């Protein structure tokens, strides 16, 4: 991408053909997303999900059937990324029971020397419809 341009990248994975009993039925998923600005690497997001001798992917995913990441970078969406960092970065009040159907977290992405501003939203949800609805919010 060119300096000053904007990017919204959504990458998510579904559990598989759940009706056929193929829920998280694999041994490893390894992905890497690299984003370059004017030929310079500004972000590398890597995921390595695998079975371990003590815990399978299926067991570790629990009730969640969707796992994803949304990367937002650019000046035209800086208000959105600031709002996401504020809303998703806020801690729940003590005693408030967290939502059990989805988990959304945010990491700010700031690099003044490369003029990069944005955020990375990572999420898990029980269904793709729920993940989509939460992303739309």
TrEMBL record:
Keywords on record: Chaperone
Q: By what name is this protein known?
A: Urease accessory protein ureD
> Family assignment?
Belongs to the UreD family.
This protein's record includes keyword Chaperone: yes
Chain coiled-coil ranges: none
- Give any Pfam family that matches: UreD
Q: Which GO MF terms are attached to this record?
A: nickel cation binding
